[in-house]
Write a structure and sequence with these properties.
Layout: E1 8-12, H1 16-27, E2 31-36, E3 47-51, H2 52-60, H3 64-70, E4 72-74, E5 76-81, E6 86-91, E7 103-107, H4 108-121, E8 125-128, E9 132-137, E10 142-146, E11 151-154, E12 156-159, H5 166-170, E13 178-190, E14 198-202, E15 208-213, E16 218-226, E17 234-236, H6 239-245, H7 251-259, E18 266-275, E19 281-282, E20 285-287, H8 290-293, H9 302-317, H10 323-353, H11 362-372
Parallel strand pairs: 1-2, 1-12, 2-8, 5-14, 12-20
Antiparallel strand pairs: 3-7, 4-7, 5-6, 9-10, 10-11, 13-16, 13-18, 14-15, 15-16, 17-18, 19-20
Helix pairs in contact: 1-4, 1-9, 2-9, 9-10, 10-11
């Protein structure tokens, strides 16, 4: 690490963004305090699709090899009619560069557990069951009050606390998530032998259905439809309901649906989005990841954008410049890329909801977006 005036950083939130940032900073010699409201790091969640740029970020913090032992790598996306008839096959572009898989499916809980172990091993000061209650920016430092009654004086405070970020509002950024107008069912199931890549099914009774293999044994399947009653939100033994809502889809997706037990645990969430305008920071406090730019999962770039934020911020903070120089440079580097992904994801969602929109070209927009993301972050 170059001589850097940034020695102590408080990271709020121990999800993918916060854990990746904490690990990246610790590996570069920064003292990191990571506070997480939950009682422990890791665990939880469904499947996740990690494209090459996400894998590049995880490689940079030293967790990719372990993740690859448990995940499922592939190099294409297959598109089908609702009845399972193939439409086209799209090669997955090498967004992580040579030597890395184009895409990998993984169990989100596995990724979280791997990050948690590496964060702890790197010497990060992890405080679970704790969050920030006060932020006092003193110009040359930030004094943060924590829910355990302690205070910490740091060079930078980073809010990585998700789409409903507390830090975002505490530092005076008035941005709130909005509903995209669709909800998503997610479930973990046994992987049929024929499933060797992500697949998406169009033209059925709902907006879209699809899946991603996440290990040799398991897959992650999803169904997009309109917003349902709030009672469905969360994780419930709703396998029977998902099977009912997923009627009208065949092929491998239909096999996955039919394999579900009636009481299978299914996650349903409203799809929401938020984008904080430039800047994402106030003084020596900044929000990153979903706290700054949560996007619909239509391009499968949510985790990638979060992980890129984390490793790039760590790189720039330890490059020798002071915080006041780093944060505007970070914004200039990140905002155009993040805005493109979010706006294109929102447009794809709009086209899913209104498929007869004149000029709608989901495949073309997807291809252009992924092609642009082959450029280094």
């Amino acid at each position: 690490m170059a001589d850097s005036p940034i020695r102590r950083v408080l990271v709020v939130g121990g999800g993918i963004t916060g854990s990746t940032l904490a690990l990246a900073l610790a590996r570069r010699g920064v003292h990191v305090i990571l506070v997480e409201a939950r009682r422990e790091l890791g665990g939880g969640g469904h499947g996740i699709t990690l494209q090459g740029n996400a894998l590049k970020a995880f490689h940079s913090v030293g967790i990719l090899d372990e993740l690859a032992e448990h995940g499922f790598a592939f190099d294409k996306l297959r598109m089908f009619r609702a009845d399972g008839v193939p439409l086209m096959e799209m090669p997955a572009p090498p967004m992580g560069g040579p030597g890395l898989p184009p895409t990998m499916g993984a169990l989100r809980a596995r990724l979280a557990d791997i990050l948690a172990r590496h964060v702890t091993a790197a010497g990060v000061d992890v405080r679970t069951g704790t969050t920030v209650t006060a932020i006092d920016d003193r110009g040359h430092s930030v004094v943060a009050g924590l829910s355990d009654g302690s205070t910490e004086t740091v060079d930078l405070l980073v809010g990585a606390d998700g789409i409903r970020s507390t830090v975002r509002s505490m530092i005076g950024i008035d941005a709130r998530p909005h509903s995209v107008g669709m909800g998503i069912w997610r479930v973990i199931a046994r992987r049929p032998a024929a499933m060797d890549s992500s697949g998406v099914y169009y033209g059925g009774p709902k907006y879209k259905a699809g899946y991603t293999p996440i290990s040799e044994e398991l897959c992650y399947a999803f169904l997009l439809e309109s917003n349902l009653d709030r009672s469905f939100v969360g994780e419930h033994p709703n396998g029977k309901i998902l099977k009912e809502h997923g009627q009208g889809y065949g092929g491998v997706w239909g096999q996955v649906r039919d394999s579900l037990a009636d009481d299978a645990i299914v996650n349903y969430q409203y799809i929401e989005a938020v984008l904080v305008d430039d800047p994402w920071f106030r003084g020596r406090s900044i929000v990153i990841g979903d706290a700054a730019h949560a996007c619909p999962p239509l391009i499968a770039q949510g985790a990638a954008m979060c992980a890129e934020d984390a490793v790039i911020l760590a790189e720039m903070l330890t490059g020798g410049d002071d915080v006041e120089q780093v944060l505007p440079k970070f914004m200039r580097r990140r905002l155009p890329r993040v805005r493109m992904v979010l706006e294109n994801s929102l447009l794809l969602a709009e086209w899913e909801i209104h498929p007869d929109t004149p000029g709608a070209d989901p495949g073309g927009l997807m291809g252009r977006t992924l092609g642009a993301l082959c450029e280094p972050a």
